[in-house]
Amino acid sequence: MNIILLGPPGAGKGTQAQRLVERHGMRQLSTGDMLRAAVKAATPVGLQAKAVMERGELVSDEIVSALIGEELDAMGSDTGAIFDGYPRTEAQAGSLDAILDERGRTLDHVIELAVDEDALVERITGRFTCANCGKGYHDTFEQPKVAGECDKCGSTEFKRRPDDNEETVRTRMAEYRAKTAPILPIYEARGIVSRVDGMADMDEVTAAIERLIST
Ligand code: ADP
Ligand code: AMP
Known about the structure:
Blueprint: E1 2-6, H1 13-24, E2 27-30, H2 31-40, H3 44-55, H4 61-73, E3 81-84, H5 90-102, E4 109-114, H6 117-125, E5 127-130, E6 136-138, E7 158-159, H7 166-180, H8 184-188, E8 193-197, H9 202-213
Parallel strand pairs: 1-3, 1-4, 2-3, 4-8
Antiparallel strand pairs: 5-6, 5-7
Helix pairs in contact: 1-9, 2-3, 4-5, 6-7
The structure holds adenosine-5'-diphosphate and adenosine monophosphate.
């Protein structure tokens, strides 16, 4: 199964992707994570992407589509893919069609996480992750069960993203509205879009996604 999770920054794509990975052994393909790894490793792609990401603008379509192709090639052909944060433009949506086609994969669901923009700044400025395993948390909405200790791996190191500040979030939302939201009709025309209430409790969102993918 191949799924796109679509929604603005902070909608809950990463949170729900991690849960799908745990429940179904699928693979999360987050272009944001791939780019952050490239920035950390100071690869040529990372060096090119760093300043763009810090501003909250979009990295070039060619770079992110190449990253997605490489990740798909590195995973088993029968492992399901969850696209998280990709595609983000019409050009990327076109590339994804070609990338999937070349690999004999088809897109089963595009799940739109619908959220109120007002809630997103709070979600994003309160977000942090385990520095070791990447499990996501939130200052208010999802604290580790034991304070200061990751539920999943026990690490006591956590990190916050440099672009998770209010000013950059506003640019990222504007990018979403201008370039990403307009790709929904492409998938609506194919009858594969489902809308989930992303304002609901995290477990309710998970349950709604489970219902969708099991039908
Ligand atoms: P995205 O990957 O779409 O940018 P995340 O999954 O990282 O978003 O979620 C952003 C923040 O909001 C995280 O800190 C996460 O714990 C929190 N969060 C995710 N889903 C919900 C929800 N349904 N209700 C409240 N907080 C949520
Ligand atoms: P994310 O982790 O999805 O919030 O992405 C963080 C940042 O990485 C974005 O603000 C963009 O600068 C960049 N990025 C991630 N995915 C893409 C993509 N598909 N297209 C362009 N830029 C991307």
